Amino acid sequence: MLKRLGVAVGVVVCCAFVMVGCTSAPVAKTSNLPAWVLMPPEGGISAVGSAKVGPAGMGFARIEASSNARDEIARTLNVKVKNMIKNFTETNGVGDDTTVDKVFTNVSKQVASVDLSGTQVKNAFMDNANQELYLLVALQPEVVANVAQTTKKAVVTSFKNDKALWQKFQAKKAGEELDKEIEKEFGGM
Fold it and tell me: Is 69 part of a structural domain of the chain?
């Protein structure tokens, strides 16, 4: 009787090991999004913008998604970044009573200013499960060439250009605004 009980327990334990060994790891959920949503196509300047379709309707979501995409294109062409990282570590106490306090703060501001005439919606996808609209927006190739030519001219002529001086003033002003926000948030450093 004891021998049968031992065999039964052994069989149950073996079955449990087999069942645990046969269970598979959770499979990553595949996306139903088109490839261009996850990685915009190369060969030009394009970006994907998205927006939830809510009570304001599809038209509003389309405007929001295309605006998000154009914003990404603008940051691709020209962006000014101001960043501050603050890292603080302190220990208190002795031996087992020692504590470590650590603070890491990252403050960043990005500003883009680009004239984006010539953008077009090239593709659209509606994710009905999440009520999310995705738009692929691209600059036309001739516009990209024009932007490159204009940038080249601006670099050559901006030394004594009033517009360049105005942009420098605006950049300085934006930096001062960021400094004020940092001062309000963190006090003197």
Answer: yes
Segment holding 189, helix H or strand E:
none
> Which one, of 41, 48, 99, 105, lies nearest residue 73 by Cα?
48
pLDDT in tens, 12-37: 444 444 444 444 444 445 578 999 99
Q: Contact at 8 Å (CB) between 129 and 32? A: yes
Query: Looking only at Cα atoms, what is the longest distance across the chain?
Result: 102
Residue 57 lies in a domain: yes
What integer pLDDT is reported at residue 81 of this predicted model?
82
Report the CATH number at residue 135: 3.30.1660
Range of the domain at 117: 33-78+113-139
Q: How many domains does the chain have?
A: 1
Q: pLDDT tens digits for 142-154?
A: 766 666 676 666 6
- Containing 134, the helix (H) or strand (E) segment is strand 132-139
Nearest residue to 139 via CA among 163, 118, 162: 118
HSE toward the beta carbon, residue 20, CA cutoff 13 A: 6
Neighbours of 120 (CB within 10 A): 12
Which range is most confident: 15-29, 59-73, 150-164? 59-73
Where are the alpha helices (H) located in the chain, listed in sequence order? 2-22, 35-38, 58-77, 141-157, 162-186
